Amino acid sequence: MSNRIRPDQIRTMKGREKIPALTAYDFPMTRLLDEAGIPLILVGDSLGMVVLGYKDTTSVTMEEIEHHLRAAARAKPRALLAADLPYRSYDDPELALKNAQRLIAAGADSVKAEGGRKILPQVQAIVGADIPFIGHLGMLPQSVREEGGYRIKGKIESEREALVEDAQALAAAGAFAIVLELVAPPVAAEVTRSISVPTLGIGSGLDCDGQILVTSDLLGLFPWFTPRFVTPRLNAAEQMRTVITEWRASISSSPRT
Ligand code: KIV
Question: Of 52, 94, 132, 196, whose CB count within 10 A is highest?
Fold first, then answer.
């Protein structure tokens, strides 16, 4: 029997212990995160920016997520493995379900999509087919072009109200966790108190039930851009540059045969 962490186990961590979640896009990172005891690993569409070199997440395709998800799933983590439904892959309930099923077939235990009441029929179709679902509210990276940038949500009353109502609607529809991205910390705390499922904050303050980060940001693996709310715990890119430069020099200066 698999000892894979189940959505209900993540859900019951609320109020008991904080939930650490990170992204992975391949076999070694999934295995490393799993060996370090991370209970929830996301094959996020941040893949587009930190691995594939796109400007934002809107270019990521289903095929790209599936490809990286299959690599992550080969690590057979104990962690719950979630995957993002990419931009435009859940425009209507039928499409959302079809693509959620594709991600499950590629090795995901759960799928995530961005939006609240606007995507409720899609969430209901996914949950109705017994596919565990994670919500995503606040700054929605897939809407960055319409929004004209990444900005904090919840600073004005209408946004605060919408966030609370969206979170309650997603929880009522069966989401087992909700990511809160760039939500004003007091509002993230209010949303967290107002729902029975865990919130996973990213740039939303400490009063969420857990924290989720793009692993490349945590490790300093993508030095060309670091979100303001992240302090990398490692300068991996710099260390790699040093080792690679030293190795190059050792080869260049070694005697010719
Ligand atoms: O794609 C991603 O990495 C995300 C973050 C919120 C973790 O959705």
Answer: 132
Determine the residue type at 32. L
- Threshold 0.90, pTM exceeds: yes
The pLDDT tens digits of the residues spanning 6-32 come to 999 999 999 999 999 999 999 999 999
146 catalytic? Reply is no
* pLDDT of residue 1 exceeding 70: no
Determine if ligand 1 sits within 6 Å of the CB of residue 217: no
Question: Which residue among 181, 190, 238, 246 is the active-site one?
Answer: 181
